[in-house]
Amino acid sequence: MSGELLYGLNQWFVFLVTVGLLYLSAEVGFRYGRRFSALVDSESHGHVATIESALLGLLALLLGFAFAMAMTRFDARKQVVLEETDDIETTFLRAQLLPEKHRDECSRLLRQYVDSRLAHYKAGADREKTNAALNWTKELQFRLWAEAVAAAQEDSDEVKTGYFIESLNGLIDDHTKRITAMENHVPEFILVLLFVVATMTIAVTGYSSGLRHARLRTLRFILVFLVAATLLVIVDLDRPRRGLIQVSESGMQQLREELDQFAAALGRKPDVP
Questions:
Q1: What is the value of pTM for the model shown?
Q2: What would the pLDDT profile of 63-119 be if each residue is shown by its tens digit?
Q3: How far is 166 from 160, CA to CA, in rounded Å?
């Protein structure tokens, strides 16, 4: 998991701090603008308005850019989960072509493999549980590969063992892809830049209001709230192990039930997670 600061903080703490910081910057800008309004002529007011518009445009551009980056990574995580679920099911079905003793053992191990992936998901931000689930997954991969090697030595038929080995290799690759996708965050430097630009932009809007002696509390709060909420969504989308927006594991949970049903239909005792 990421050790970066923003990804380790509670999302509501980030939101409240952002709202407070932005509102404070607007208030400081307003008081500063009101204090020096008598020294600024009408032409300078126009320049301030131009700068204010440019900063708001820059902030909107950066927010859109960061949101697109976070959404792309979120979609990639969903796609990896879907691919892994499909590959586990394919590997399980192809395992039924193996010699009987290897077929039964691989089927059992694959049901446990689904359990290990669900345990990895349920671990959340708990590093100890996450590492335990990952170690369990790696152990099952080694055991499945050993079964595949033994089955290939007994029967080198491409249909019976070759397809299973191919699927198993893809399954192992999926695990690596998923770990990589979960560690692939929007660079924290971009998020910090967003917070800085947002703070300075809101301060300039406050300064512009101060020059006109128009506090506009309601409009200011709406602007601050929306900017902070957008920043919250960007950060939340990019944190796969905590927050409000999570990649669903319903497909993996459904697969576990289907594998138990398949095992029961073949007269095998389902594993207890």
A1: 0.79
A2: 999 999 999 989 988 898 899 999 999 999 888 888 888 888 998 999 999 999 988
A3: 11
Number of CB atoms found within 10 A of residue 165's CB: 17
In single-letter form, the type of residue at position 52 comes to E
Domains of the chain: which residue ranges?
9-265
Cα 184 from Cα 179, distance rounded (Å): 9
- Cα(115)–Cα(271) distance, integer angstroms: 10
Residues in the chain: 273
How crowded is the C-beta side of 103, counted as CA atoms within 13 Å?
12
User: Whole-angstrom distance between the N-terminal and C-terminal Cα of the chain?
Assistant: 25
Buried residues in 198-237 as b, exposed as e (16+ CB within 10 A): bbebbbbbbbbbbbeeebeeeebeebbeebbebbbbbbbb
